[in-house]
Each structure stands twice: as structure tokens, then as C-alpha cells.
């Protein structure tokens, strides 16, 4: 028996997550095989290529924002999780403290050093640097240290009095030399082929040179060396390439019946700036029967212009004058990603790397399924 | 970064390495004489004390002395 295929409107309606004053409805997706009688939702690569869209809103090295449209939450969430936990960066992993007479304790200092984001030449980081292999049994861990998996750094700072400081100087940074220890005081010690890969502007360096590591007073000293390895965020957050990688669903605001005059002004105030615009009711609209605008020509009406800016505060649902006039929701397959890089990668490159990573995971899974059947 | 077994430092101990080379050398010399160095709590001077000597800074006379930090390298995980 042939069944009626759903209309465009019906398909649009199925995509909307309802956001009400106290409840959220229709949170799960319904576009999978066997859910709707007579409708085929079998996995189809052509359909995915046709329906999936990516639109960038902002693309800067430190922050990128884009919409990923037409995919299931499982895919969008996989990208998010891969960006946080599976894209590798280098970070300080071991700290060898020869001397530390500062007020900050050794272990706290080591922890702080580990969290400093570093960057360097892309070619060296991507293609030259490799994972640190596990040492064989009863072999010391240093036996696996090579120029392609270990980067050496040093931090050697001693605080002294500044003889040239003015007598009434109060600022410790002028009164003493090296009163503040910054990330820029860390010195990169290249070995082997690192000299070639991390030369000049490609040198391994802190992304933000002005990160304060410790404060010293005359006579105090920090004297240590460090090593860095490649790692992933699932091991420790210091290896995560992103400060945030998150998504939200595109909000929808549907005005069911006209909101006019003072109500329209109050309605616009329920949303962040730029979401609602006040427009004059045209003569044509006022003349049309059943439009709800009859007799309201040249009055102000509320028009939704940019729901993407909405924070979905639901403020408009608290006021009786908007009852039955507005419906809030979210589009279930429209993910607005926001990615902030810690600096080792460019933000958009992290997303591209996450796609490559998911592909690689799928390839490995496919091989394992093939092996299982064999 | 030597990985030798931990040895309790004693006055007669000669083989005491670890940390930066030259500081280790001075340390073993200091151990030879049986003198321990402390830091004055008041004036931060380095105070040598012999066994049984009164606990007092020779510079300012303060009676609070701090033990010096180890000269050996200490390894930490940056986590
Ligand atoms: Zn003293």
C-alpha cells in the first residue's frame, strides 16, 4: 500500500525541538529507518552529501564559529568530543627542578608549567613530531627519548635587587630584576633535527608570552628543565587543543499571531538586541482579511530577524500578553559550533582534523569488522 | 639526571652526585667537614653550623634557622 509522503512543512515541523515555559519536547530525532511507516531513512551517502551544509560565521585563528546543518546529534557530538579529547598537541610533561626557592611549591609550579599552551612550526609539529613510545620492560623511560618525540625547555631565573631603581620605587617589577617570571622566560633547547624544524619563527614558544608563572623576591631562584611530549586531551586536559569546543541548536521563534504597538516594543525587549525588529504594518497587510493586521496600518509590529542571536531565555513566555502568540523552539539538525583554540592549532584546522580523525576511526572499525567476519 | 639509588647522606659519604655537577661537588666537601649550612630566618644569611654548636645566626644573632633545600634534582609530573 503506497503511503502519502510527508509535506515539506511536516518535515520542517519534525525537526523542531519544542521549548516551552517549563518543558522541552520532541528532543529525540525521528529520521531513522522503521520509524515512519512508508518512509525510507536508510543511510545514503548521496543524501548526506546533498543535505549537509557548513556555513562559517566567524573564522579567526583563536576563535571560529560555524553552523553544521543537516547531521544527526551523534555526528556533531562526535566532532565535539574528538576536538576536545583526541586532537594531539604538545605540552610540558616532566619538570626536573634543580632549585626552587620561590613561594610557589614545586608540584604546583610543575602543574602550572604543564598548563601553558605552546606552539611551533606546523611542519615540525604535524609531520616531524611523533608519539612517545612506551619503554620496553626493565628499560628506563629515557631510552625512548629522541629528537622526534621529546622537546627540551629550560627555565632559569634568579631575582635580584635593581641598583638603578628610584629610591621611592614601589613597583616590584622595577625595584627588582625578574620579580615576575613569565612564560616568555622559558627557553627552548633544540636537539638534533629540531634545529631545522623549529628554527627562527618556527621555534617552540609559549602562545601567550605574558602568562605569569611565579613571583620572586631578591635571593629567590627558579632553576629547572622540562620536557614536552605529544599527547591527547583524553589523557590530560593540558593536551586539549581547544579552550572550548561546543555547539548549540539554532533557536527558532515563531510569531503565531501579530504582536503590535506597545506589546511589540515589550516583546523585542524579551530578546537580546538584533533578534526582533519593529516594522510598520503596511497598508496592504492591513487591508488583507484574516491577517490580524486589519485596522492597524502604520502601527509597529514585531518581526523576527535573527534568531541565531537569541539565548533562549524564554523571557517572552513569562508574560501573559504574548500567550498563544509566540512559539519557541530549536532546530534539531542545525548545530552552531563555537571553537576557541588554545593557540597551537588554528581553530578551523581543529575541526578539519576532527573530521579526518573520525574518518580514520571509521576505517579502523571497518577493518576490525572485516577481520571479525573472516 | 642520574638515576642512582638513594643514599642517606652522611659525613663520611664521598660519592654523592645528582643535581648540577658543581653544586654536588661542594655538597660533598661540606659533608666532609661535618658542617651543615642553614638559612637565617631573619637576615637570610647562609649560616654554617658544626655538630653540637648553638643554633644561632652568626650575622644577626637570630635563633630561627631554616634547613636548606636539597641540592639534588627533584622530578615532577606536570599534571
Ligand atoms: Zn641572621
TrEMBL record, chain A:
<dbReference type="InterPro" id="IPR036643">
    <property type="entry name" value="RNApol_insert_sf"/>
</dbReference>
<dbReference type="InterPro" id="IPR050518">
    <property type="entry name" value="Rpo3/RPB3_RNA_Pol_subunit"/>
</dbReference>
<protein>
    <recommendedName>
        <fullName>DNA-directed RNA polymerases I and III subunit RPAC1</fullName>
    </recommendedName>
</protein>
<dbReference type="Pfam" id="PF01193">
    <property type="entry name" value="RNA_pol_L"/>
</dbReference>
<feature type="domain" description="DNA-directed RNA polymerase RpoA/D/Rpb3-type">
    <location>
        <begin position="63"/>
        <end position="368"/>
    </location>
</feature>
<dbReference type="GO" id="GO:0046983">
    <property type="term" value="F:protein dimerization activity"/>
</dbReference>
<dbReference type="InterPro" id="IPR022842">
    <property type="entry name" value="RNAP_Rpo3/Rpb3/RPAC1"/>
</dbReference>
<dbReference type="InterPro" id="IPR033901">
    <property type="entry name" value="RNAPI/III_AC40"/>
</dbReference>
<dbReference type="GO" id="GO:0005666">
    <property type="term" value="C:RNA polymerase III complex"/>
</dbReference>
<dbReference type="InterPro" id="IPR011263">
    <property type="entry name" value="DNA-dir_RNA_pol_RpoA/D/Rpb3"/>
</dbReference>
<keyword id="KW-0539">Nucleus</keyword>
<keyword id="KW-0240">DNA-directed RNA polymerase</keyword>
<keyword id="KW-0804">Transcription</keyword>
<dbReference type="GO" id="GO:0003677">
    <property type="term" value="F:DNA binding"/>
</dbReference>
<dbReference type="GO" id="GO:0006351">
    <property type="term" value="P:DNA-templated transcription"/>
</dbReference>
<dbReference type="InterPro" id="IPR036603">
    <property type="entry name" value="RBP11-like"/>
</dbReference>
<dbReference type="Pfam" id="PF01000">
    <property type="entry name" value="RNA_pol_A_bac"/>
</dbReference>
<comment type="similarity">
    <text>Belongs to the archaeal Rpo3/eukaryotic RPB3 RNA polymerase subunit family.</text>
</comment>
<dbReference type="InterPro" id="IPR001514">
    <property type="entry name" value="DNA-dir_RNA_pol_30-40kDasu_CS"/>
</dbReference>
<dbReference type="GO" id="GO:0003899">
    <property type="term" value="F:DNA-directed RNA polymerase activity"/>
</dbReference>
<dbReference type="InterPro" id="IPR011262">
    <property type="entry name" value="DNA-dir_RNA_pol_insert"/>
</dbReference>
<dbReference type="GO" id="GO:0005736">
    <property type="term" value="C:RNA polymerase I complex"/>
</dbReference>
Automatic annotation (TrEMBL), chain B:
<dbReference type="InterPro" id="IPR029040">
    <property type="entry name" value="RPABC4/Spt4"/>
</dbReference>
<dbReference type="InterPro" id="IPR006591">
    <property type="entry name" value="RNAP_P/RPABC4"/>
</dbReference>
<dbReference type="GO" id="GO:0005736">
    <property type="term" value="C:RNA polymerase I complex"/>
</dbReference>
<dbReference type="GO" id="GO:0008270">
    <property type="term" value="F:zinc ion binding"/>
</dbReference>
<dbReference type="GO" id="GO:0006351">
    <property type="term" value="P:DNA-templated transcription"/>
</dbReference>
<dbReference type="GO" id="GO:0003899">
    <property type="term" value="F:DNA-directed RNA polymerase activity"/>
</dbReference>
<feature type="region of interest" description="Disordered">
    <location>
        <begin position="1"/>
        <end position="24"/>
    </location>
</feature>
<keyword id="KW-0862">Zinc</keyword>
<dbReference type="GO" id="GO:0003677">
    <property type="term" value="F:DNA binding"/>
</dbReference>
<dbReference type="Pfam" id="PF03604">
    <property type="entry name" value="Zn_ribbon_RPAB4"/>
</dbReference>
<keyword id="KW-0539">Nucleus</keyword>
<feature type="compositionally biased region" description="Polar residues">
    <location>
        <begin position="1"/>
        <end position="14"/>
    </location>
</feature>
<protein>
    <recommendedName>
        <fullName>Metallothionein-I gene transcription activator</fullName>
    </recommendedName>
</protein>
<keyword id="KW-0479">Metal-binding</keyword>
<dbReference type="InterPro" id="IPR039747">
    <property type="entry name" value="RPABC4"/>
</dbReference>
<dbReference type="GO" id="GO:0005665">
    <property type="term" value="C:RNA polymerase II, core complex"/>
</dbReference>
<dbReference type="GO" id="GO:0005666">
    <property type="term" value="C:RNA polymerase III complex"/>
</dbReference>
<comment type="similarity">
    <text>Belongs to the archaeal Rpo12/eukaryotic RPC10 RNA polymerase subunit family.</text>
</comment>
Amino acid at each position: 500500500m503506497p503511503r502519502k509522503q510527508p509535506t515539506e512543512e511536516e518535515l520542517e515541523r519534525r525537526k523542531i525541538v519544542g521549548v516551552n515555559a517549563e518543558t522541552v519536547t520532541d528532543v529525540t530525532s525521528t529520521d531513522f529507518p522503521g520509524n515512519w511507516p512508508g518512509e525510507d531513512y536508510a543511510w545514503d551517502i548521496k543524501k548526506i552529501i546533498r543535505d549537509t551544509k557548513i556555513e562559517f560565521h566567524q573564522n579567526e585563528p583563536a576563535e571560529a564559529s560555524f553552523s553544521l546543518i543537516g547531521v544527526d546529534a551523534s555526528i556533531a557530538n562526535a566532532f565535539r568530543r574528538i576536538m576536545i579529547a583526541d586532537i594531539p598537541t604538545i605540552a610540558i610533561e616532566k619538570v626536573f627542578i634543580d632549585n626552587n626557592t620561590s613561594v610557589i611549591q614545586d608540584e604546583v609550579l610543575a602543574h602550572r608549567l604543564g598548563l601553558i599552551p605552546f606552539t611551533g612550526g606546523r611542519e615540525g609539529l604535524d609531520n616531524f613530531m611523533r608519539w612517545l613510545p612506551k619503554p620496553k620492560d626493565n628499560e628506563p623511560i629515557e631510552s625512548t627519548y629522541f629528537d622526534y618525540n621529546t622537546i627540551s625547555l629550560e627555565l632559569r631565573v634568579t631575582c635580584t635587587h635593581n641598583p638603578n631603581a628610584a629610591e621611592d620605587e614601589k613597583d616590584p617589577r622595577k625595584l627588582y630584576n625578574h620579580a615576575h617570571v613569565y612564560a616568555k622566560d622559558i627557553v627552548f633547547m633544540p636537539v638534533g633535527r629540531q634545529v631545522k624544524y623549529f628554527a627562527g619563527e618556527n621555534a617552540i614558544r609559549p602562545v601567550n608570552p605574558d602568562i605569569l608563572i611565579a613571583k620572586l623576591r631578591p635571593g629567590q631562584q627558579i632553576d629547572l628543565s622540562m620536557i614536552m611530549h605529544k599527547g591527547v586531551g583524553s589523557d590530560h586536559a593540558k593536551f586539549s587543543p581547544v579552550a572550548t569546543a561546543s555547539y548549540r541548536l539554532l533557536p527558532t521563534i515563531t510569531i503565531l499571531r501579530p504582536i503590535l504597538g506597545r506589546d511589540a516594543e515589550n516583546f523585542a525587549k524579551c530578546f537580546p538586541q538584533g533578534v526582533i525588529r519593529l516594522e510598520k504594518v503596511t497598508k496592504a497587510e492591513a487591508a488583507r482579511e484574516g491577517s490580524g493586521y486589519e485596522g492597524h496600518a502604520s502601527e509597529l509590529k514585531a518581526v523576527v530577524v535573527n534568531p541565531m542571536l537569541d539565548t533562549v531565555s524564554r523571557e517572552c513566555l513569562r508574560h501573559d500578553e504574548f500567550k498563544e502568540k509566540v512559539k519557541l523552539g530549536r532546530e534539531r539538525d542545525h548545530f552552531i559550533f563555537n571553537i576557541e583554540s588554545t593557540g597551537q592549532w588554528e581553530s578551523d584546522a581543529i575541526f578539519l582534523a576532527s573530521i579526518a580523525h573520525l574518518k580514520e576511526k571509521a576505517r579502523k572499525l571497518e577493518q576490525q569488522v572485516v577481520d571479525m567476519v573472516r | 639526571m642520574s638515576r642512582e639509588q638513594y643514599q642517606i647522606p652522611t659525613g663520611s659519604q664521598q660519592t654523592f652526585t645528582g643535581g648540577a655537577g658543581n653544586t654536588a661537588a661542594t655538597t660533598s666537601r661540606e659533608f666532609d667537614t661535618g658542617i651543615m649550612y642553614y638559612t637565617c630566618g631573619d637576615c637570610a644569611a647562609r649560616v654554617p653550623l658544626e655538630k653540637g654548636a648553638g643554633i644561632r645566626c652568626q650575622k644577626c644573632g637570630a635563633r630561627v634557622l631554616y634547613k636548606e633545600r636539597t641540592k639534588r634534582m627533584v622530578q615532577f609530573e606536570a599534571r
